Amino acid sequence: MANRSSGGRVKNKAPAPVQITAEQLLREAWERREPEKSKGPKQRIQDENELLEIRQRRRKEFEDKLRMNRTHIPTWIKYAKWEEAQLEFGRARSIFERALDIDYKNPHLWVSYAEMEMKHKFINHARNIWDRAVALLPRVAQLWFKYAYMEEMLGNIPGTRAIFERWMKWVPDDKAWNSYVRFELRYGQVDRARKIFERFLIAHPIPRTYIRYAKFEERNHERDLARAVFERGVQETDASQPEYLELLLQFAGFEERCGEVERARFIYKFALEKAPEDKKEQVHSLYSSFERQRGGKIAIEESILKRKREEYEKWIQKDPYDYDVWLDYCLLEEEFSSDPETVRNLFKRAVSYQPPPQKRFWKRYIYLWIYYATWEELNMQDLDRAAQVYRDALQSIPNRHKDFTFKKLWILAAKLYVRQKDMTSARKLLGTAIGMVKNNEKIFREYISLEVALGEIERARTLYHKWIEHHPYSSKAWLEYANLEISLNEIERARAVFDLAVEQTELDAPELVWKAYIDLEIEEERLDLARSLYERLLEHSQHVKVWLSYANFERTYNHDKDEVAREIYRRADRALANAIVDLSANSRSQGSSDQVDPQLLTAKEDRATLLREWLAFEQEMSSRETSALKQVQDKQPQKVKRRRPIFDSFGENVGWEEYYDFIFPEEAESGKAPSLKILQIAHQWKKQKTEDS
Q1: Is pLDDT at 437 greater than 90 in this prediction?
Q2: Rounded distance, CA 358 to CA 235, Å?
Q3: d(CA 603, CA 362)
Q4: What is the rounded CA–CA span in Å between residue 39 and residue 28?
Q5: pLDDT tens for residues 29-45?
Q6: DSSP classification of residue 278
Q7: Domain presence at residue 252
Q8: Which Gene3D superfamilies match (predicted)?
Q9: What is the DSSP letter of 550?
Q10: Which of 12, 135, 371, 576 sits at a 20 to 30 Å CA gap from 310?
């Protein structure tokens, strides 16, 4: 509220911060309204004249409403019921008749009219109304039901039957027929009910009608008649009708209840044939449950097998190149089928669908051939057929194995020849594979393992020679050849193999060959030869791992391990430091100052690793040598975090990333690491401030 002074004047004439609208006032008034609690006054009638006056006024109100809207049937019904309440039955009938003249097709109007007569026991009037109603509206089931119910409540059974007969001439739906049947059964008229069902079948020849008729006969313990009804239903109805399957299942259930197991089994199988695809699972479930209760294990397995076959055939029709489905289908037949030709024909069907000539499509397909051959060998004990399957599989690969092949297939076929004791065919097949397969190292390995197992060492050596001729840079070939000679205790031969191997300039994994060669000499306790191998290896590679391995070797096998190992650490440090200097000079001459040479970072990390291992070594020996420990501690680098730009494929700067760099003492003294000087100054300032405080 606005502030007012003592004199009544307004002090603040500015508008309020929140303005109240008329709409808000009306809404608040409506929300805060109190519910109406007032009721109309009770009216007491003193004499007959006053009653007549009130009736006259009330009739006038109803007539006025009807003049405004003559077609509003609820007003007519209210008007008639009011007259009924005044016991003016003649007036009420008149009002109903006037309403029927307007809309005789309204069932609710007829029902209200007849219920008024029934309520006050004017039975003949009610019959007259019902007769008129069903004559005018014979398709309205409610009128027939109400009429028949009234006559049955009055005990007029012949009249009720006559009403149903009049109704049935109009061929109503199945609810009317079922009501007629239940009416006759309530009074024990079974023969009449049976005749009604026969007429019901003529009016509605659908599976649902046959099911109800058969259940009726079964409840009356007439099994033969019920079976006859079911058989008529199966023959007289069309299998395309939606309830035909339900008729078959009900028929099977009936035979099951009667103890006719074979009949029920036959009907279930017939239902499986007639069932649509979306209902087969339901029928299979019911049939399986029936077989578990009434049948044996064989019948259950046949049911399951039949269902699974149908499922697999359906999947194959959708995609005949889904080899996983083919494989599962073949395994199913292998497990349950008693006819080998069935399984063999299914395998032949499966492998007849060849995929496109790309290897990624053949990876699953080739397993079908392998399983086919395995089945012939293990289940049928027919090695000749299995060998023929492998030959067919190898011939099926397109372009004579030039584009792609499968080493597993060659090896399995060769092993089958071995199990047949046909070594000539096995060697011939593996030799052919070596000539046709490009990446044939696995073939060499299997071929050699076969010859070694047979004790044919010279043949194995010949194969190793061929392997090395085909793949002179394969470290696995050299290692396995040397390991063969070691296993035969031919150490000199093994040394010769290793010597030839380390002389190769482009081995794919030279570190494995050098390590195996050094381990051989250590195992043979030829430490001088092992040391010379380390020196030869350092001529080829100055990698930090080589230096650390050399130092650990001296620490382990040298009696004067302190000084010898320390000298190796010194040599390694000098070599790695020189590598860093060379890389730094090369980076400054060729690269930008913003870019970081990854080789330089790797070299620094390698030297930091070496110095860390050297420090651990000196700390282990510090009880006797403290000057050497101090020297190594002074060499330890400073690890700092830095940032470098990130460039995209177009050479544009897209951001920054952090990385760790190592600053060595000689680099800091030469002034090439300004960030390290700033860091040292910051440490000194922090130390000084701590001392002052």
Answers
A1: no
A2: 55
A3: 47
A4: 26
A5: 888 877 666 666 676 77
A6: G
A7: no
A8: Tetratricopeptide repeat domain
A9: H
A10: 371
Q: What is the rounded CA–CA span in Å between residue 156 and residue 148?
A: 9
* Residue 643 bridge partners (DSSP): 658
The three-state secondary structure class of 43 is coil
96 with 80: CB under 8 angstroms? yes
| Helical H segments across 240-319, by residue range | 244-257, 261-274, 280-294, 297-318
Between helix 223-236 and helix 207-219 the angle, nearest 10°, is 170
Is the pLDDT confidence value at 676 over 60? no
β strands within 567-619, DSSP E: none
Give the burial string for 432-454 (b: 16+ CB within 10 Å, else e): ebbebbeebbebbbbbbebbbee
Whether 659 is covered by a domain: the verdict is: yes
Query: Which residues does 647 contact at the CB level (< 8 Å), separation at least 6?
Result: 653, 654
Tens digit of pLDDT for each residue in 272-331? Answer: 778 877 777 787 778 777 777 766 555 666 666 777 887 888 888 888 888 888 888 888
Query: What number is the average pLDDT over the span 242-270?
Result: 85
Burial class (CB in 10 A: 0-12, 13-18, 19+), 597: middle
DSSP assignment string, 454-521: TT-HHHHHHHHHHHHHH-TT-HHHHHHHHHHHHHTT-HHHHHHHHHHHHT-S--SSHHHHHHHHHHHH
List, for residues 598-647, the tens digit of each pLDDT value: 888 888 888 889 889 888 888 887 655 578 888 888 888 888 888 888 87
* % of the chain residues with pLDDT over 70: 89
Round to whole Å and give the CA distance between 150 and 115: 10
For residue 677, pLDDT over 70 is answered with no
Q: How far is CA 571 from the centre of its chain?
A: 61
- Partners of 122 in the beta sheet? none
pLDDT tens-digit map of 168-198: 999 899 899 999 999 999 998 999 999 999 9
> Does residue 317 sit within a domain?
no
Handedness of CA 167, 168, 171, 176 (dihedral sign): positive
Query: Residues 138, 170: contact at Cβ < 8 Å?
Result: yes
**More confident site: 230 or 309:** 230
Give backbone dihedrals phi and psi of 322, rounded to 5 degrees, phi first.
Answer: -90, 90
Mean local confidence (pLDDT), 475-497? 92
d(CA 397, CA 362): 9
- DSSP for 210-244 reads HHHHHHHHHHTT-HHHHHHHHHHHHHHS-TTSTTH
Total number of domains in the chain? 1
What is the extent of the structural domain holding 581? Answer: 542-588+595-683
Give the Cα separation of 639 and 347 in Å (integer).
67
Question: Strand, coil or helix: what is 642?
Answer: strand
Q: Which phi and psi angles does 283 have, rounded to 5°?
A: -65, -40
- The answer to the question of residue 309 being in a domain is no
Q: How confident is residue 577, by pLDDT bands cut at 50, 70 and 90?
A: confident
Per-residue pLDDT for 164 more than 90?
Answer: yes
Helix (H) or strand (E) holding 77: helix 73-85
CB count in 10 Å sphere of residue 534? 19
- Per-residue CA distances from 59 to 51, 112, 447 (Å): 12, 20, 117
Q: Which residue has the tokens 């109800």?
A: 212
SS3 575: helix
In b/e form, how buried is each residue of 627-639, taking b as 16+ CB within 10 angstroms? ebbeebeebebbe
